[in-house]
Specification:
It is built from six helices and two strands. By secondary structure, the chain is mostly helical. A two-stranded antiparallel ribbon has the order 1-2. Helix 1 crosses helix 2, helix 4 packs across helix 5 and helix 4 crosses helix 6.
């Protein structure tokens, strides 16, 4: 039997408090992922010289405009975006901060995957999910691994 087909021995379960912390962090990451995706996309649209319009956000996220409208209402209530009639969507200072932090995480994860030999397209897609679930410690380990001499 080839080594890759052998089952990996399972580690004993950690203490319940330690174990539940991992699940708690993942639930929090799932809740914040959508917000981060929206503000990062809004920042990208604005930086590309375009307005961040509801129709453009919907097209790029592959969702319906009413879905975007509902999320924009939430983002306004959270103090991350401002909506101006007939002008589009703008990020507040807090929104710009969230967008920048998300973008840095995304770029780090994508660069790390590329350094492992993952194709550009796959790394971009995979980083979109991983960026929301990776800890600061793991991001730092990615950075160190990419800059370590080979």
């Amino acid at each position: 039997m080839a080594l890759k087909n052998r089952p990996v021995p399972r580690e004993p379960l950690p203490d319940a408090d330690v174990h539940s912390e991992g699940f708690r962090q993942q639930r929090q990451a799932r809740r914040s992922a959508l917000v981060e995706d929206y503000v990062e996309l809004i920042a990208d649209l604005i930086e590309d010289g375009n307005e961040a319009r509801q129709v453009d956000i919907a097209a790029r996220l592959g969702v319906a405009q009413p879905t975007v409208a509902k999320m924009l209402t939430r983002l306004c209530a959270d103090g991350l975006v401002l909506r101006k009639p007939y002008r589009g969507v703008f990020l507040t200072e807090a929104g710009r901060k969230v967008a920048e932090e998300s973008r840095i995480r995304h770029q780090t994860v994508e660069a790390f995957l590329r350094s492992l030999g993952v194709s550009a397209e796959t790394a971009r897609i995979d980083a979109e999910g991983i960026e929301h679930h990776v800890s600061a410690e793991t991001l730092e380990a990615f950075r160190k691994a990419m800059t370590a001499p080979r």
